[in-house]
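Thread: sanity check for a docking pose with flavin-adenine dinucleotide

Original post by kr_44:
Hi all, I'm comparing my docking run against an independent structure prediction. Below are the sequence and the ligand SMILES. Could someone generate the full complex and paste the structure tokens? I mainly care about where the ligand ends up relative to the chain.
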Amino acid sequence: MTKYYISDLSKVGLPAASTDDSNHNTFDVIVVGGGTAGCALAARLSEDPSISVLLLEAGGSGTSLLFSRIPSAYSKLFKNPKHVFQFYTEPQTDAQNEKKFWPRALFRPKAKMLGGCSAINAQMAQYGAPGDFDEWAKIIGDDAWNWANFSGSFKKFEKYTASTSYPDVDISVKGSSGPVEVGYNSYYSESSKDFVESCVKKGIPMNHDFNTTKGPNGVNRISMWSSCLALSGTDSNSVRPFTVTYINKDVSRVSTESAYLTPDVLARSNLKVVINASVTKVLFHKSGDGETKAVGVEFAKDRNGKVWRAKANEEVVLCGGAIHSPQVSYPIKLTVNRSPFNTLQLLLLSGVGASAHLKEHKIPVVHDLPGVGQNLVDHPVVDFWFKDKSKLAPSFMVPSGPMDLVKTIKWVALYLLKNGAGILGTNWGEAASFVRSDDPQLFPRDEYPIQVAKDSTSGPTSPDLEIFITTLAYKKHGAWTWGFPTFSIHACLLRPLSRGAVTLKSDSPWEHPAMDPKYLTDRDDVARLVKGGRFCLNLARTEPISSRIDHTDAEGLDGNTYLKSDEELEKIVRDRVQTLYHPTSTCRMAPLAEGGVVDSHLRVYGIKGLRVCDASIFPEIVSGHTAGASIAVGEKGADILKADLRPNK
Ligand SMILES: Cc1cc2nc3c(=O)[nH]c(=O)nc-3n(C[C@H](O)[C@H](O)[C@H](O)COP(=O)(O)OP(=O)(O)OC[C@H]3O[C@@H](n4cnc5c(N)ncnc54)[C@H](O)[C@@H]3O)c2cc1C
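Reply from moderator J.T.:
Ran it for you. Here is the predicted complex with flavin-adenine dinucleotide included:
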């Protein structure tokens, strides 16, 4: 695929300082960031041959990387700065004041490649709850974003192929002709099967498809939308995984690069996809009547590379993700020249954001927009580790000696030669359940005495906790494991109330911004995670998974942690809390008066020709995994732009 991409920046840009006014660097729309949403947006927009599109991506191709394609191997990329941005959060004062990494040291999963995080994520295709999107529509005051309407964008990207193995999935509600294949991974571990059976025993009803409109199903004793992705029966021979993943028939990851940037799309004369092109600035033009318009961007290969510029006739769309989109918006140059690309005198380093913050970094203010970078929210997760009595856990995948490497090579060969066969086909997060922490059946007061003050869900049928299993227990985001079989059960807080921010550390686009998610600053977040943690521990003592676990309290594992008090559990929560890699909402789609950055057409308030289209626009974080909604935002963004730019088509 790499052959279709442009890596010579002079092919689409002019030197930043040049006074050349030729048009080879002029496009109708410039998309900044070829990630999860960006690839979808650029591909859909360029379906209209009258719209010329330039897509600038900081990294290279994700599909060319074997570790991205093999479902289980993505974490092997985390250490490579060429493919993954290396971020740290600010110290988290409510999480034992530890420096929490986002991604953490030696382990940095914020993708820098085409496909973005869809190229390195765990592929779990659960999109959130219908109530989330009804809440979005209410916040922004536009029904186009409610579930009834926005669900069309999910269906549009989806390609689900019906299978007799999954007769309970209602295929009439699934997309069947979109570019993004969703299906089932080839590998499903024994521990995940046991997890699902134990969830059912605990009272979580089965849910054969997380992504439908239906609310609590059947005799469901819990009030939630998505209950448990589960098995078709309790007989383990009939167990089937129900975790839908972004996967194709060859058991290869489906990213938005592989799905949308196909050879026929890349052959379009009105689409240019450029790799290794980091946008360093958005360029603005201020007209005589005081209107500020985005008119182009500057970009470079790296910090020391030559700086180029391209012109946008109509729109610049930021798709850099929830960390980079606000960062790119901050340090922008304002051209006050009336013909910006004739003499292009970039007179003022300027910015869009809170004026006080911009002034702190001596960045003159283009537009005072206090919401930029604010409202950072992420899903915090706490892991519980168990020793698996079986010999099945794939500990060799975090090699501790030559024998492990030999095993890995054997499995890679099997995967490559036998159509994705074997354990490398696991996406790690094979099974999950979604629950409400206020469900009295699942969380009876005598077992779960800790008090939660506020309902943070998006509606009565939406969950606030996810309980999921990974086939291997690990620390350091997968870089370390015990030298014997293990697995983890995790409690993830789906609707945190704590809010943080992305702010600048300097005016340099090459310096990472400060990310402060402020984990656990809201007391309810701690209480919910204590409840979720205790649920994980109780689940671990429920058959059949209980029999799989060595319950001695050895080697820092959690076989006996259920004996701990809530106070002790709270300490564990604060010690272990980590990111589930779902930052959102830093350029929120919300009314200006409520800290919004974009309106319902994704237009940045107060600036013409500048939009944002990625997970940063989520008005609130979804109660689930964030890739699906990011792709759907890309789809919807394209529909909106096409209609706004070519209203008569
Ligand atoms: C390890 C991991 C596991 C995850 N697991 C799941 C999961 O199982 N299921 C799920 O639904 N979600 C999962 N997620 C979350 C999900 O993948 C993300 O929320 C989603 O992909 C974000 O999409 P985005 O378009 O907002 O940003 P991204 O996909 O991050 O795209 C941003 C793109 O912009 C580029 N870029 C940034 N700055 C610039 C610049 N200045 N110039 C040019 N290009 C730039 C980046 O290189 C990147 O390609 C996971 C994420 C990670 C990291």
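The mean pLDDT is 87. Hope that helps with the comparison, let us know if your pose agrees.
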